[in-house]
Amino acid sequence: MSGVHQPKGSRAIMIAVGLFAAVWLLPVAWVLILSFKPNEVLMMSGDPVWKPPFTFKNYINIIETSSVFRWLINSAIVSVSATVLVLALSSLAGYGFARLHFPFRNTIFVLVLIGLAIPEQAVIIARHQLFTNWGLHNSYVGLILPHLSLPFGVFLMTQFFRGIPQELDEAAILDNASRWRTFWKVLLPQTLPVQATLGIFTFLLVWNDYFWPLISATRPEMYTLTVGIASVQGNFAQSEGLGYLMAQAVFAGLPALIVYLIFQKQIIGAAAGQAGR
């Protein structure tokens, strides 16, 4: 019977994790509740926010904004395209650094890692001038390209490829498989869990990006959702209504939450796989 009961230490850890999760979710619940509150009630009443009345008017006002679905499509195109391209480039680069031998391989890999320490703001002026000369502003290409240089993705895929046994490559070579076939048919399927993690990370990073779209997309029809929603906000919560602002935050974050819920098994599998290495 003693083996049926959990140790006290495990119970304490679970309780601590539960409390931490509850504290982390409190701001999310607060934003969600406020998004359903009438703006005039929030401005005039001091009652607790969880008490009625509630309304869908804040969300209806967002949907009635003429360009909101165009901004939603723009964000989807940019985020999905950048995610697919990052996965392709990171997988190829990771395979090259992990499996191929070429001059200055280690030096180039170190240079890639140095990119992790360079903030986007440090290169924003040079990037802006470059994209202006190329005529790429206010285009999907201009919004996607900067996200393709993701050193973290190259590092993650390189480390994962290095953890795959070399015997798989040798067995494929004995079967007269080419380098490309070995990569595509044998090794790449082994990386699907970590690619799911990298894909979710990239999608959320691009979807929530505000800084570069604010600079590159100057025409309303090319706004992403983050920039578009910010463009219709007033300077203060009193001008638009606090409930309306909270509804905008929920509306912008909901697609990212849906994507995470769909791929949560892959993310958990990747985390478990990495922990077991």
TrEMBL record:
PROSITE patterns for this protein: ABC_TM1
An individual GO BP term: transmembrane transport
Subcellular location: Cell inner membrane; Cell membrane
SUPFAM superfamilies attached to this UniProt entry: MetI-like
Superkingdom of source: Bacteria
Stretches assigned to the ABC transmembrane type-1 domain: 72-263
A GO cellular component annotation in the UniProt record: plasma membrane
Keywords: Cell inner membrane, Cell membrane, Membrane, Transmembrane, Transmembrane helix, Transport
InterPro entries, per the entry: MetI-like, MetI-like_sf
Membrane topology annotation: Multi-pass membrane protein
CDD domains linked: TM_PBP2
Transmembrane region(s): 12-36, 71-95, 107-128, 140-161, 182-207, 242-263
Function comment: Part of the ABC transporter complex UgpBAEC involved in sn-glycerol-3-phosphate (G3P) import. Probably responsible for the translocation of the substrate across the membrane.
Subunit structure as annotated in this protein's UniProt entry: The complex is composed of two ATP-binding proteins (UgpC), two transmembrane proteins (UgpA and UgpE) and a solute-binding protein (UgpB).
Family listed: Belongs to the binding-protein-dependent transport system permease family.
Protein name: sn-glycerol-3-phosphate transport system permease protein UgpE
Gene from which this protein is expressed: ugpE
